[in-house]
Automatic annotation (TrEMBL):
The entry's keywords: Oxidoreductase
InterPro entries in UniProt: NAD(P)-bd_dom_sf, SDR_fam
Disordered: annotated segments: 22-46
Positions of transmembrane segments: none
The protein, known as: Uncharacterized protein
């Protein structure tokens, strides 16, 4: 989370909100809760949206993209900020205790930060194979040694080369993964948040690493997850590490009909917004993927996405000094945040397509009153209001991303 992100709180405006309500208390995820699966919104069950004007067909204003100013703080923005602070200070994440005997797990970006700590938990929890997808094998071997020393388990962890800046590297890793006896979990954790514009493959680097390559990997590996489901009668997971900051994306590129092309335009790119946008795109893609799997009866694989909270890691190495101050007071350790990754990667089918925060299907604690009144009263499954209010945008993002993935690997969409 960056200073720019906090400025976004003053910009995000879903219109029509009239106050903030104290929501319900949080419940921990449990396969035994019997919670209903969150419903998937589709293009047909909501108002049409004009991406250029930011208005629904009914004329309700969705976003106010004014110049940031404290005077534009809205109840929704205030709600998400209060939820963030509440979560960082008061919410306790349960220490993972699941038994993962026999499971094979891949974690991308697992040489450091949240990925490393999640891999450490998976190893401690008895997984039979934990694969660290790393762009530097040297760093991967260092991480493997660290995990083996702390868990006392050897012969479990493997470091595989995987560079999400290269589609070829992603394809090669997936090909290798297809040779595994089974694959129970893939955690798409690797991510970047640089402050300067750079290209990787044919997109801006954050779009390539955080979005395109993450879903290239996810979709290419789906058949293996499905094969594992059928062979071992289990429900594998494809878990994407997103972030609460997806709620703060201005996403001005949405005004242009050609999203990916616009995201590649250096001259119009707002790098202060790009990380949030990349996390928002992850949310759209994960939701649409889960919805499609549900629709086609292929929901034998759980697709969910999560927010680990603000954590101490090297992700914000380019961030402003203010962020360091904020992290000093509020950030979680990477071990603590990694519990959210483990929880999502082992969660029940009620998390299909759901946004998980603090180890459960995310809920508003401070609920914008408008959402109380418009059918979000139980406050569950709360990705950004932008996501819930604009199903058409999810469809647009998916159409563009899936076309791109199809161009990288023809036939890839057949698995969905
Ligand atoms: N920390 C937070 O506050 C926070 C909050 C919300 C969400 N998240 C998300 O959590 C995930 C992990 O972040 P973190 O905080 O643990 O950051 P981190 O410490 O910087 O770790 C990021 C990991 O991703 C790897 N990576 C970067 N580019 C890669 C590429 N091209 N190919 C393969 N791996 C690559 C990094 O490898 P190298 O070491 O080689 O660079 C590193 O292992 C990210 O998706 C991030 O967006 C973090």
């Amino acid at each position: 989370m960056t200073l720019a992100v906090f400025r976004r709180y003053s910009v995000l405006n879903t219109g029509g909100s009239s106050g903030v309500t104290w929501g319900r208390t949080r419940k921990h995820l449990s396969p035994q809760t019997g919670r209903h699966a969150p419903s998937m919104t589709t293009a047909s069950d909501s108002e049409a949206f004009s991406p250029v004007q930011g208005y629904t067909r009914c004329g309700r204003r969705l976003y106010d993209l004014k110049t940031p100013s404290l005077s534009t703080v809205t109840p929704t923005a205030m709600s998400s900020f209060l939820n963030f602070v509440y979560s960082q200070i008061f919410v306790a994440l349960p220490y993972p205790k699941q038994d993962l005997t026999d499971q094979t797990i891949i974690v991308t970006g697992a040489n450091t930060g949240l990925g490393l700590e999640a891999a450490r938990h998976f190893t401690r929890l008895n997984a039979s194979k934990v694969i660290l997808g790393v762009r530097s094998l040297e760093k991967g071997e260092g991480a493997k040694k660290s995990i083996e020393e702390s868990t006392g388990r050897s012969g479990v962890v493997e470091a595989w080369r995987l560079d999400l800046c290269s589609y070829e590297s992603v394809k090669q890793s997936v090909q290798r993964a297809h040779g595994l006896q089974r694959l129970d979990v893939v955690v798409g954790n690797a991510g970047i948040a640089p402050s300067t514009f750079a290209m990787a493959e044919d997109n801006e680097s954050m779009v390539t690493v955080n979005v395109i390559s993450t879903f290239l990997l996810g979709l290419l590996i789906l058949p293996k997850l499905r094969e594992t489901a059928a062979k071992f009668n289990v429900q594998p997971h494809l878990t994407v590490v997103s972030s609460e900051v997806h709620m703060m994306a201005k996403f001005e590129e949405r005004k242009n009909p050609d999203l990916l092309k616009t995201l590649n335009d250096k001259n119009t790119t707002d790098m202060g917004d790009r990380y949030q946008v990349s996390k928002l795109l992850q949310v759209y893609c994960a939701r649409e993927l889960a919805a499609r799997l549900n629709k086609t009866g292929k929901s034998d694989v759980i697709v969910n996405y999560l927010n680990p909270g603000m954590c101490h890691s090297s992700l914000s190495r380019d961030g402003p000094f203010f962020l360091e101050v904020l992290k000093f007071f509020l950030a979680r350790s990477t071990e603590y945040g990694s519990r959210a990754l483990v929880s999502a990667a082992t969660a029940g089918e009620e998390t299909q397509g759901a946004y998980l925060s603090d180890c459960h299907v995310a809920q508003w604690v401070f609920l914008p009153r408008r959402h109380c009144c418009e059918g979000f009263a139980d406050a569950e499954n709360r990705p950004a209001p932008m996501v819930l209010d604009e199903p058409e945008m999810q469809q647009r993002v998916w159409d563009e991303v899936s076309a791109k993935l199809e161009s990288i690997r023809p036939g890839i969409m057949a698995s969905v």
